[in-house]
Amino acid sequence: MCGIVGAVGPSNIVPILVEGLKRLEYRGYDSCGVAVHQDGGLRRARSTARVAELQQAVADEHLASGTGIAHTRWATHGAPAVHNAHPHFSNGRIALVHNGIIENHDELRAELKARGYTFESQTDTEVLAHLVDQLYDGDLLDAVQRAVRRLRGAYAIAVFAKDEPQRVVGARKGSPLVLGLGQGANYLASDAMALAGVTDQIVYLEEGDVVDVQRDAARVTAHDGSGWRTVQRPVRTVQAHSGAAELGPYRHYMQKEIFEQPRAIGDTLDEITEVTPELFGEGAAAVFADIDRVLVLACGTSAYAGLVARQWLESIAGIPTSVEIASEYRYRDSVPHPRTLVVTISQSGETADTLAALKHAQSLGMPHTLTVCNVPTSAMVRECRLAFLTRAGVEIGVASTKAFTTQLVGLFLLALTLAKGRGRLSAGDESRHLKDLRHLPVAVQAVLALEPQVIAWSEEFAAKDHALFLGRGLHYPVALEGALKLKEISYIHAEAYPAGELKHGPLALVTAAMPVVTVAPNDQLLEKLKSNMQEVRARGGELFVFADNDTRIDSEPGLHVIRMPEHYGALSPILHVVPLQLLAYHTAVARGTDVDKPRNLAKSVTVE
Questions:
Q1: What is the model's pLDDT at position 509?
Q2: Closest Cα to residue 517, out of 485, 565, 474?
Q3: Would you call 310 exposed, middle or buried from its count of C-beta atoms within 10 A (0-12, 13-18, 19+)?
């Protein structure tokens, strides 16, 4: 969600800024812009189209400079419009870009209007640009340091001033920002990926840091309560991969990432030969011995992974588990327990709501923390004591696919590890589960071979406006994930329910125009599920069923069946979600939507 790139160098850095924005497109945005210090003043180009169109506008405006900032915006305050797009100017001498939300922008706006400032946008960001300008007295670093002390909320910013060529100042609190160190040039970005190919020397700025970036030096400062002091942050060598990865034979990144799941799962399991606490980091054994319950904090798709994990943790490990939507958790009165393992799940490791929920849990006296995350250098990994790093690789499509299935792999290993530590996992069961895990890439590949049958279904779904998804037990969260995928990329209204809840309300919606997708593994709830399916058929509903081979559910008028290659027991959710991903993808393609960048959505949600 939103992306920042800034640079100070000896020659024209505009191509670096634009290329950095291209690498950040996966985060989601609805406008973009570039500002530079050129011909003794500030110049910019902004667009509500894609970065490719911005690149043309930059060329038309002949923007070229050694100092500049760039931004992709996901609208919060103010509609997606050019006048709301970043960078924002103030008095022709300050240029600023911003990720996050300034909570006290209204009172600052009133104060600045009283001082004579005129506002051209509805954004909270323009307030910040004017505030820096009002405080500016020839030293940009000092002005930014004073400005951020006035702010409430979350921000990552990059600023430069007309009167100080070859200087950009950045600051962060609650939104990610990194410093890139180069040879004779230095950079800022919201994500190390933006600097791939430019530098691999990355400094991850910490909460409250303000950084002074110049051509030959960069200095990080932090406020210690009495004043600003220069601080040292570690420099990491980060091999970031470009977001502009090759599509190969695929039409969209989402399709490519669906088909990368066998490899992603295999990589995540690479070299794992036994169930051991060390899979989760140094000191994990002591932490696991000191817990008697689990609290999962996550949002969106990751929360559905947590719901699957709850059933594994309780049935396999016998440990009480609760799952909280991160954006709600810290705003309610909960009952903390010091022997809780707080598990956060996040693809990016920068999800603002989950980070805030994690810190809230810690503040309540729950120090045992673990994250399941795809980005080893992320804030989530740095904040948690333990981590399981999935190896899904870069996920560019906004709708998560391979990140979800690799999260499930990590969470299943957590359930096995806690079970083993509690004496609930025999050597034979451990061996069997590991064998099943190692076979997963082959099993997922067999599911992917069902794509032609799913495409045939998608042509029917493309004409629909609504859909229901049903599942039971372990597969209810899979139904939730299938409905989420369909709605977020095809824009079809979709809801998921535990199948047993049909008669408690949703059955009123069932007609021949409402497709009902059912996840039907051959488990202990199958016969109950068949009864629920009959309830749908009796009301004229049309069923689309993903069934295991031995369920004895056959296609007939009003009942369409795609047979899964094999039943996979406890790991079945990882297989059953794959055809739901394919159904959403091909339905979206048939409807002509922007699959990889669905409207109004962002890949990395870094604001509340």
A1: 81
A2: 485
A3: buried
- Provide the 3-class DSSP secondary structure of residue 64: coil
Distance (Å, whole) CA 16 – CA 4: 12
State how far the Cα of 149 lies from the Cα of 223, in Å rounded to an integer.
9
Residues 6+ positions from 92 with CB-CB distance below 8 Å:
41, 42, 162
* C-beta atoms surrounding 217 within 10 Å: 10
The DSSP symbol for 198 reads T
- pLDDT at position 385, please? 96
Q: Which of 2, 32, 299, 373 is catalytic?
A: 2
**Pairing status of strand 88-90 against strand 94-102:** antiparallel
| Amino acid 472: pLDDT | 86
Residues with Cβ within 8 Å of residue 256, at least 6 apart in sequence:
247, 248, 250, 397
Give pLDDT, residue 538. 67
DSSP per residue, 259-282: HTHHHHHHHHHTT--S--GGGG-T
How much is the pLDDT for 431? Answer: 96
Q: Which residue has the tokens 């817990």?
A: 291
Return all residues near 418 (Cβ < 8 A) that are at least 6 apart: 288, 294, 313, 317, 319
Q: Which backbone phi and psi does 77 adopt, to 5 degrees?
A: -95, 110
Cα dist from 62 to 44, 52, 89, 159, whole Å:
10, 15, 19, 21
Say which of 256, 402, 487, 603 is annotated catalytic: 603
pTM of the full structure: 0.80
Q: What's the pLDDT at 376?
A: 87
* DSSP conformational letter for 579: H
Task: Measure the CA–CA gap between 549 and 563, rounded to whole angstroms.
Answer: 6
Q: Which of 14, 144, 35 has its CA nearest to residue 89?
A: 35
Q: 162-165 contacts: CB < 8 A, separation 24 or more?
A: 162/37, 162/40, 162/41, 162/42, 162/92, 162/93, 162/94, 163/93, 163/138, 164/140, 165/37, 165/66, 165/67
CA separation (Å) from 583 to 144, 302, 317, 482, 574? 49, 20, 33, 8, 15
pLDDT, one tens digit per residue, over 344-360 is 999 988 888 999 999 99
192 Cβ neighbours under 8 A, 6+ residues apart: 178, 180, 202, 238, 240, 377
Burial of 520 by CB count in 10 Å (0-12 exposed, 13-18 middle, 19+ buried)? Answer: buried
d(CA 243, CA 51) in angstroms, rounded, equals 13
Residues 6+ apart with CB under 8 A from 200: 237, 238, 239, 240
Instruction: Report, as ranges of residue numbers, the positions in the chain whose pLDDT lies below 50.
Output: 243-244
Q: What is the pLDDT of residue 243?
A: 46
Q: Which amino acid is at 493?
A: H
Cα 137 to Cα 361: distance, rounded to the nearest angstrom = 42
Neighbours of 503 (CB within 10 A): 11
User: How many Cα neighbours within 13 Å face the side chain of 494?
Assistant: 29
Amino acid code (one letter) for 232: Q
CB–CB of 389/373 below 8 Å? Answer: yes
pLDDT of residue 244: 46
Q: How far apart are CA 349 and CA 355, in angstroms?
A: 8
32 is catalytic: no
Q: Before 87, cis peptide (omega within 30)?
A: yes
pLDDT on residue 513:
81
CA dist 224 to 209, 227, 231, 338, Å? 11, 6, 10, 30
384 annotated active-site: no
